[in-house]
Amino acid sequence: MAKALSPSDVLAFHAHESARVAVVSLRGAQREVWRALPFEFEDTIARLDEADVVGPGAVVNGQLLSRRLVQHWRRLARPAQIAPAQAPLRTTGRRYDLLFVPIGDLNELSMFEDLKPWLSSSRLRVAWVVELWSRSIANNPRALRLLKQFDMIAVGAENSVEPLQRATGVACFYLPAGVDVMQCMPNDLRAERPIDVYQMGRRADSTHRALLNLARERDWYYLFDTSWSKETDQPVEHRALLADTIKRTRFFIANRAKVDAPQQTGGQHEVSFRMFEGSAGGTVMMGETPQTPSFQNLFGWEDAVIPMPFGSTHIGDLIDSLVAQPQRLQAIRARNVQQALLRHDWAYRWRAVLERAGLKPLPGLVAREAQLAALAERIGHEHTDIAAASSTGARILRLPVAGQTGLQMGA
């Protein structure tokens, strides 16, 4: 069982002398690979705002960690500015305008023995439940009691927003995943991509076998997982390596979230992390897409994901048909990067949270958005075949609370 966390067991991964935001991170207690994505969001918040990002580690039962362990935490949080001897976040210390607590899933809430010291340190308290399937809500009464202590709950699954709000009575809103687009985007959209097909994580054996045959027949570089190690102690490096790999990939398999796990999802359709990563890397994505309004609003541009049923054995024919249209392929790559710049950077997700909290964005966030817009405009100028897409003016994703319908793209 995971060790419960308390305010006396914390390490400052990022510390700001005039912090208005506190982010409680579990990067010191959770090493699952997929959690590197929300950790990336936490690091982005620290860069764009005045935020303390704290988590388990530096002070345990009043004793400082050894130098060896402090060095280990430095590697974990790089490139963060770390203050391992920083005073822990206590109720008698600094007060914050906003407490933001990313939670992987409802089961993870059990790691917090007592949230009250954290909650009382902030004027407004927001939890972000990254993964949530509606069928699991009723099975977690203790987690629901803990969530009721928050003022708002962001939910990473569109179809779980309404059920969670009904179960908790707390205002809920949809906050999809995002990505560090500037890290993921290629320097040159016309550069050769040495990886022909990349299929990471979940896969259909039938499609995998078809790709293995194609790789042998055509001397393709087909990249896939050969082991199921689910942990990393280097989340920052993991995200950088993943970005470098995807931006060098021609065709990227991106299915809806947990497409092969109906026993867990109950058939619920949601957008997957792969789609955000693949679009930012300028790949040509192929896969089974979710039948949800959020997919159309998040990825509603032309050829965002080339439809391919999960388990298809005809992937070779589909790739051949696309390769025969080089101009279309180039437009797909350019458009995917451009739209990721306009829609899916973590900066937009943080703005959405700030707007809910009634806080103004700081200069770092405004500057980041301007940089993203400039890069998107440059792609539009360099690739005139996607000029129509660049004229939409879509930049900031407006995310409704439960009870509202649809997502609007704001200018």
Could you characterize the architecture of this molecule?
By secondary structure, the chain is of the alpha/beta class. It folds into two domains: 11-174, Rossmann fold (3-Layer(aba) Sandwich), CATH 3.40.50; 181-341, Rossmann fold (3-Layer(aba) Sandwich). The protein contains 16 helices and 16 strands. The protein has helices at residues 36-48, 67-77, 116-119, 141-147, 161-168, 181-184, 205-218, 235-246, 262-265, 273-280, 293-298, 315-323, 326-343, 346-357, 363-382, 387-390; strands at residues 11-14, 21-24, 51-55, 59-60, 63-64, 96-103, 122-129, 152-155, 171-174, 195-199, 222-224, 249-253, 284-287, 305-307, 396-398, 408-410. The strands form four sheets. It has a seven-stranded mixed β-sheet with strand order 1-3-2-6-7-8-9, with helices on both faces. Helix 7 (205-218) links the parallel strand 10 (195-199) and strand 11 (222-224). It starts with 10 loop residues before the first strand and ends with a strand.
